[in-house]
Amino acid sequence: MSGVFGFFAPDGGGAAETAYFGLYALQHRGQESAGLAVSDGRRIRIRKGMGLVTQVLTDEAVANMPGSISIGHVRYSKAGEPHVANAQPLLGFTQHGQLALAHDGKLTNAPSLRQRLQRDGAVLQTTTDSELILNLIARQTGDPFEEAVVKAIGALRGAFSVVLMTNDKLIGFRDYAGIRPLSIGRHGEATILASESAAFDTIGADRVRDVEPGELVVVDAQGLRTRQLQPAQAAFCVFEYIYFARPDSHLAERNVHLIRKAIGRQLARESRIAADLVIPAPDSGTSAALGYAEESGIPFDFGLMKNRYVGRTFIQPTPALRQKGVRIKLNPVSALLKDQRVIVVDDSIVRGTTSGKTVEMLKDAGAREVHMAIASPPFIHACHYGIDIANTDDLIAAHRTQEEVRKIIGADSLHYLSLSGLYKALQMPGTGLCTACFTGEYPLGVGEPQSTSDLLEDEE
Ligand code: SF4
């Protein structure tokens, strides 16, 4: 998963600063690397590196990137190795001039595209799918430039929400299933593209609408124009609603926090646990826990406190310190938990390690019973569309019964939301969503369509 951001201001200026704040709002979508590309109309400057937005994009760096068009990216490692070369945006010097590109998603035909490009002499410098997209675009001809982009999109399979810029254009496009989000915003005369609408709020822009699945958006001095390249067959990632997106974002016209509360209410209706207290697993379980408490009438409180200043990397405690119970990220509120029957609401159980530690911590703090209520169905299939869970063996529920999982995590009971309950809470009948990690039904397939190489040959 990554976050992408694009900005075009016809009246000039401020593109770097605006993208900085937009990326800051999207930081939850990736903390491994960050980057920004800005055009002043003649050249594109780029700055990227490993770390958080504030670490990579310093005041000085942002101040030295004048221009009115920008794209930015925050990245969580997926297909590529965690390495600075894989940080985005990617910049290329091409027959179309300088091109910068940032991508969220994962191509299902990346291996054959890579093989084909390399056989044709391409020198690839990263292990990202994004570089394949940039190379494909660079090789196509077209006038205006977006015709080359359209040809390249025809060769892509899988999940992609992309922002792309030249010296005078901002372009965005999404795969025909619209697996990963991308929205259009407006601030005065400026147009913004962003993974989530929280980025618009941060910079004072208004959300206009989502980029439709299969749609291409071009913004330049002539204004904004769009093209539907392929008929949309929407299959939006349901996990964006459950976990990935910020609660204050709007996805497909609906607020994520309110959706998560509805999911929590549905979970309460389905699980009916006798308990004294509902607590969220911080922070991702908070909205669903609120809904659970409202529906069940069981009091809500914060039983686990999170240290908000813990970064992704810190000195790991020694085994001796761990034995002493050193707690870095989470600490239970013993005074609240003592002798209580506690329901912990969490968004999902993936590997199960965190859930096991949470149950242990709550029991050590004096909780009499700990019940886990999970705001999604069992996660049993790998994701092939850009989430870093590519191996089914890593999933605790993949080859175990619910009772086996309960025993491993040590909870007194374990409750999952049903798939039909999830659809009900989302007010969606099951169409328009990717739910493959629960069902194994992959809307874009998982492998290489036979026609990919033929398609490339046709185009060249
Ligand atoms: S498999 Fe799961 S995580 Fe991956 S895109 Fe589909 S719903 Fe989202």
Description:
This protein has two domains: 2-233 and 449-459, Aminohydrolase, N-terminal nucleophile (Ntn) domain (Glutamine Phosphoribosylpyrophosphate, subunit 1, domain 1); 255-307 and 315-429, Rossmann fold, CATH 3.40.50. It is 30% helix and 26% strand. The chain is built from 17 helices and 23 strands. The protein has helices at 15-25, 53-56, 59-63, 110-119, 129-139, 146-153, 198-202, 238-244, 256-271, 286-296, 319-323, 334-337, 353-364, 402-409, 419-426, 436-439, 452-459, and strands at 2-8, 33-39, 44-50, 69-75, 90-94, 97-107, 158-165, 170-174, 183-187, 190-194, 206-210, 215-220, 223-228, 235-237, 250-251, 254-255, 277-280, 304-306, 330-332, 341-346, 369-374, 413-416, 432-434. The strands form six sheets. The protein has a seven-stranded antiparallel β-sheet with strand order 3-2-4-1-10-9-11. Strands 5-6-7-8-12-13 form a six-stranded antiparallel β-sheet, covered by helices on one side. The protein is globular, with a radius of gyration of 23 Å. The two termini are 31 Å apart. Mean pLDDT is 91; it is low at 450-460. Bound molecules: iron/sulfur cluster.
